[in-house]
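Same chain as my last thread, 129 residues:
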Amino acid sequence: MYSRSPVLPFDHQDTNVTLSYDTEHVNKLNQFLSNLNQQAKCNIIKRQEQYKQHYNMNRPNPLYNIGDLVLVKTLNIRYKFDLRYEGPFRIIKKITEKTFIIQDVKKQTLCRQVTTDMLLPIFERIYSF
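reply #2:
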């Protein structure tokens, strides 16, 4: 501002300052950080198990077989009178315990993959006269 160079903090460095590399300190620091990392992993796994138990506490565990009729939950509900479930669908393939491939009963070409939380079972009534 007044045509002179500014004096900055790193302009006056003392030549007597030396930094030493202590291998013992570095080893202790690495060991401490690895212990912290292990504790964090254990805490994460423990909390995940607690979350899983809490989530599954009141969850139903329905069993579906191939050939069962089901309804599928509608994802895009905009109004309160919209249909909440669509179908009927028939289970044609079991991928895992909770994942199925279903096929529309009316349109045989319409197939999709769903999980059990999207399904509602339909029970067929047999009438005898």
